[in-house]
Design a protein that fits this description.
By secondary structure, the chain is α/β, with parallel strands linked by helices. The protein is built from 13 helices and ten strands. Helix content is 40%, strand content 16%. The strands form two sheets. The protein has an eight-stranded parallel beta barrel, surrounded by seven helices. A two-stranded antiparallel ribbon has the order 1-2. Helix 10 (256-265) links the parallel strand 9 (235-239) and strand 10. Helix 2 (71-83) runs parallel beside helix 11, helix 3 (99-111) packs across helix 4 (126-140) and helix 4 packs across helix 6 (168-177). The longest helix is centred in the middle third of the chain and has 15 residues, at 126-140. It is globular.
Length: 320
């Protein structure tokens, strides 16, 4: 690596101290809570410097929504999410090879104004990303994207390609100049230091990162990335909350309520979760509606529960 992990935030201790400093403040120092219950169905937080009020729970474009042959169920899930107050949907050109964007587009053609719509390019080049954007717009049945993100940035080589003269960042800038895209973001769940380097190198608006109760045991995004994202006032979207079910173990975390409340206690703007059924959607939204902040002791207890199986719970991460 060209940079030293230990010294990236000057020292690892400094990064940890940054998170402890966050914990020492009231979370309401960061977010506009309590919610305006008369106008929004879900409690909201500000999406960083975008100024957009986003519900605590947002809809991810995976699970049922990326599977071929599930159009009817997927459209029902999306419509039900909007009916219940979800106002942020995240998808990607890569999800189901376009299936996810296509299903979401079935709803967007009539309900686009109700949603802050985010999608992603997995291509690292200008030309490839512009082609994907054109495809995404067609599949989503819209002429604008609220947030266009770099998908799953894993390595320094990814960053090198993205920021090259013919890299994806040039496509981002052109799309924003042309009014097709409003905000720019970066996403990843592999290495917090690579993403930290990315947001230091470019002035993004949002970041989508993995956060769950097993995070702190290895390659911690909470300790090594979240403080920097907050300092830059990025919209912070948490993903991998249930880790495709691997966060749940007998003797460990056993409920979605535990998994969601842990991440929502962190200074994030919202969380995205892929949904399999209407029942699952309604249960998750109900958790968000009734969310109460956990104490530091409760957070540490949940972290400790995941320690024996943290590698499995964070299977998508680099292993240090």
């Amino acid at each position: 690596m060209k940079y030293t992990r230990r010294k990236f935030f000057k020292t690892s201790a400094a990064a940890a101290a940054g998170y402890l400093a966050l914990k020492s403040k009231s979370v309401t120092d960061f977010f506009s809570i309590p919610v305006e219950a008369s106008t929004l169905k879900l409690p909201f937080r500000m999406l960083g410097k975008t100024g957009y009020k986003v519900g605590l729970f947002s809809l991810g474009g995976q699970a049922t929504l990326e599977k071929s042959g599930t159009e009817s169920e997927s459209v029902k899930i999306i419509n039900r999410a909007l009916d219940l107050g979800v106002n942020y949907i995240d998808t990607a050109a890569a999800y189901g090879g376009g299936v996810s964007e296509t299903y979401i587009g079935k709803v967007m053609k009539d309900r686009r104004s109700e949603v802050f719509l985010a999608t992603k390019t997995h291509d690292r080049s200008y030309d490839g990303s512009m082609r994907l954007l054109e495809k995404s717009l067609k599949q989503l049945q819209t002429n604008r994207i609220d947030l266009w993100q770099l998908h799953n940035v894993r390595t320094e080589n990814d960053l090198k390609k993205i920021f090259a003269e013919d890299g994806a960042i040039k496509a981002f800038e052109k799309a924003r100049r042309d009014g097709i895209v409003k905000y720019l973001g970066i996403s990843g769940h592999y290495d917090p230091f690579v993403l930290a380097k990315g947001i230091n190198e470019y002035d993004f608006d949002c970041i989508l990162l993995s956060l769950n109760a097993a995070d702190k045991h290895n390659a911690s995004f909470i300790d090594n990335l979240l403080p920097l994202a907050l300092k830059k006032n990025l919209g912070i979207i948490g993903m991998k909350i249930p880790s495709r079910g691997r966060i749940f173990k007998s003797g460990g975390i056993t409920t979605m309520k535990q998994a969601m409340e842990y991440v929502l206690t962190l200074p994030v703007s919202t969380i995205i979760v892929g949904i399999s059924t209407i029942k699952e959607l309604e249960e998750n939204i109900n958790i968000a509606k009734n969310f109460k902040y956990l104490t530091s002791q409760q957070m540490e207890e949940l972290e400790e529960l995941t320690k024996p199986y943290h590698s499995d719970a964070n299977w998508f991460k680099t292993q240090w």
